[in-house]
Write a structure and sequence with these properties.
96 residues, mainly alpha, globular
């Protein structure tokens, strides 16, 4: 038997849910209500995409160093969520 390598699929930088569903999931997590694993993954991916898009905007302006704290505050901290470890590095690896 030959072993085949499994490759990871690249995730696209597109928010694949409606604004209504996104706000519902954010509210649900803020209120610490029970969430299904699928919904947690969808919300994490949506927050990650928004963070990466925010960083990209700062990357192409002159204030690249300001992007990290501003985006972190606007996407994660203001909503009361804890950011994943090394999120900015993951952003660069997956989408650049």
């Amino acid at each position: 038997m030959k072993k085949t390598k499994q490759t990871k699929q690249k995730k696209r930088m597109i928010l694949n849910m409606s604004k209504k569903k996104y706000t519902k999931l954010v509210r649900q997590k803020k209120n610490k209500k029970k969430m299904s694993l699928k919904n947690k993954k969808q919300l994490d991916h949506a927050l990650f995409i928004q963070y990466c898009k925010c960083l990209k905007k700062f990357k192409f302006s002159n204030n690249e160093s300001l992007g990290y704290p501003v985006c972190m505050n606007s996407i994660y901290k203001n909503r009361g969520f804890k950011a994943p470890k090394n999120i900015s590095r993951l952003c660069n690896e997956k989408f650049n």
